[in-house]
Specification:
Structural class: alpha/beta
CATH class: Alpha Beta
Order of helices and strands: EHEHHEHHHEHEEEEHEEEHHEEEHEEH
CATH topology: FAD/NAD(P)-binding domain
Largest sheet: 7 strands, mixed
CATH superfamily: FAD/NAD(P)-binding domain
Radius of gyration: 22 Å
Shape: globular
CATH architecture: 3-Layer(bba) Sandwich
Helix content: 10-25%
Number of strands: 16
Number of helices: 12
Distance between the termini: 30 Å
Amino acid sequence: MEYDVIVVGSGAGGSAAAWRLTKLGLRVACFERGDWQTPDNYPSTGLDWEIKKRKAFSPNPSIRNMKSDYTIDTSESDIDIANFNGVGGATVLFSGHFPRFHPSDFCTYTLDGVGVDWPITYSDLEPYFNVNDKVMRVSGLAGDPAYPEMKGFLPPIPIGEYGEMIAEGFNRLGWHWWPSYSAISTGSRSDSPCLNLGPCNTGCPQGAKSSTDVTYLPDAMRSGLEVVTHSVVVKVEVTSAGKAKGIWVLESTGNRRFIASKVVVLACNAIGTARLLLASKSDDQPQGAANSSGLVGKNLMLHPLGYAEGLFDRAIDLDKGPQGCCIYSHEFYETDEERNFKRGYTLHVLRGGGVLETALAGLDRREVHWGSSLVKDVVAMHRRRGSIAVICEDLPETSNQVLLDESRIDNDGMPVVIVKYRLGGNSKAMMSHGLTQARRVLKVAALKKVMAFGPVREAGWHILGTARMGNDPATSVVNMRGETHDVDGLFIADGSVFPTSSGVNPASTIQAVALYIADQIYETHFGVLTDGNAIENFC
């Protein structure tokens, strides 16, 4: 049996690419090392949801330790890694905050002399952004002056009294803010509208959050996509002539099986994709598949994150609505020559957590005390602590990288992954500035006991770089079509290909890029796109 296309990974990029290629009439299989999720098992269906959030549903694979997880050594990294290995990938546990990259994010070197320019532009991706917003049931409010025109959204997530109070702080300063664009269904046009329970990043049992296991994949399966679970891809097979011919899969039985395909698409996130390329060594490619440049695994970007927090003088609706989808500000997103860093960041307003999270945070800060005052202390803080995250653009540096430790073998029989990552001077200056401005907003919004801290170690959700897109094979891993320079028929359709990281959550742009690359795959290897099968007609 030979497929037209094999997609490795069912997260944001892999699901979008598999959907588009299946809709174009190709025989496609998506291989996933984990399993489908059972919504009834998501933490928020039980009273112990905050305990499960910290254990079985932790975003940190070293804590979660599912059978589908693999070892990631972050002892040499300033930021720990968060991911999810199962159908839907990291979209199962993401917050649903869904902004796009700005047009400037694709040309940072031309504009600001830092990073590198992408070989594609915002305009190239715009039709794919538009279709992705529809498939992912994005809610939002049109008209944000920070972006080109965007429209066609479901009604925005209500920002509530909390959002209004923080927004008033931005207004008093004269700063930009906007309701979050969210991959969360709202309103009468949705079969499963959001109930505003809050803990979206533990999985959504209602199906309102648009993880790809409830959006792209079911629709693609109705069109013929095969999703193969419990299958760990351990190697990409490449011919001596430099052509991808298929994959080697470690099945749940322990057997290894070769599966042939005309095209192979990797979408395992910027760590998993680099891991697989580096492990796919051969006599013809001794540094790993598609690695003649030596850049596979290099230029890892993780979006350094900090927080500013403060207390309201009374309890408000902090715990109502999606925790990661309230309002955001791009006031400091673009480069300002008067600042001591290039590029910028998002101020991302977050809602509060549950009682246990309140109690543990208070204990850490010595605001909550064991003993007779415990309950009183927690009540005095719960539904009162507002926070703003600072999401910093991370510039690419070759010293930040994913490596394999050949002396250690993980459960897949593959070398253990090592992440080496240190914050650069630009990121540190940006973080300092962002925390100062976030504190300023909270104070103007009348919060008390305002504090700020960062970078946060447990915050490696946005994993980008490691297989950069570019025109020059000496300085990039894939070309502008997403196909590796070295291996014909081997494509990458996830955040690995990002030359720069922007200052926003990357999921929307990962999917737009994946849809774009799917069209490039079709035109390069299978046929010609016509008006009848153009992306605008598939939503």
